């Protein structure tokens, strides 16, 4: 039982490049989330999904896209990377939304230069 | 706007007790979570409060007062491995977690 896995662990992008951050969970959770964490600030929700085929925007969705074709996978796409997207990205999943803890992946540290 | 406030940094001594406070102003309330995050690692769940009162789980306890918009995390018998950041998060009316910036706890021998 691996929990939530993310790839890659680290990545350096040039301005304007694109990439996909991968996230997979093996707990059969319906709810999945993408957060970014910047130094000195709380986690910010980028996108979330309540099940396969259903996604919705969080607090800071601009510059990102997601898809959820299966229960297990929830990739995050960065289009036209900008220095403001330099951050640590965490994927998380939960059994349900109310009262249930979120399980986090190990994170992806992204630098855009 | 929505806001979660917690101290930026606290220092405590090994074996002692420390209380980390969290105050919040959110649009709706569907529970408050505490997470622990070691440097360079992912957050891990510590506790959940949705009703007023104290929840105890081993060395860790969490308290909630909804009328005051206030919670605290109490850590007893501090160990060096407790050195970490402690994140307070409130689930708002849209069932989204609003996160505080975290409290960095430094344990000294």
Short description:
Chain A is mostly beta strands. Chain A has no helices and 11 strands. In chain A, strands 2, 4, 5, 6, 9, 10 and 11 form a 7-stranded mixed beta sheet that branches. Chain A has a 4-stranded antiparallel beta sheet with strand order 1-3-8-7, with no helix packed on it.
Please tell me about this protein's structure.
Helices cover 0% and strands 49% of the residues of chain A. Chain A has 113 residues and is mainly β. Chain A is globular, with a radius of gyration of 13 Å. The model of chain A has no long low-confidence stretch (mean pLDDT 96). Chain B has 109 residues and is mostly beta strands. In chain B, 0% of the residues lie in helices and 57% in strands. Chain B contains no helices and 11 strands. Chain B is globular. In chain B, 35% of the residues are buried. The A-B interface holds A 40-45, 48, 58-59, 90, 97-99, 101-107 and B 4, 8, 30-31, 33, 41-45, 48, 50, 87, 89, 91, 95-102.
Q: What characterizes the major β-sheet of chain B?
A: 6 strands, mixed
Ranges of chain A where pLDDT stays below 50 over 5 or more residues in a row are none
Query: How helical, in percent, are the residues of chain B?
Result: under 10%
Give the terminus-to-terminus CA distance of chain A.
36 Å
Bulk shape of chain A: globular
Radius of gyration of chain B: 13 Å
Strand segment count of chain B: 11
Determine the oligomeric state from the structure: heterodimer
SSE topology:
The complex is a heterodimer of chains A (about 110) and B (about 110).
Chain A: E1 4-7, E2 10-13, E3 19-25, E4 31-37, E5 44-51, E6 54-57, E7 64-66, E8 76-78, E9 87-94, E10 103-104, E11 108-112
Parallel strand pairs in A: 2-11
Antiparallel strand pairs in A: 1-3, 3-8, 4-5, 4-9, 5-6, 7-8, 9-10, 9-11
Chain B: E1 3-5, E2 9-13, E3 18-25, E4 32-37, E5 44-49, E6 53-57, E7 60-65, E8 70-75, E9 84-91, E10 97-99, E11 103-108
Parallel strand pairs in B: 2-11
Antiparallel strand pairs in B: 1-3, 3-8, 4-5, 4-9, 6-7, 7-8, 9-10, 9-11
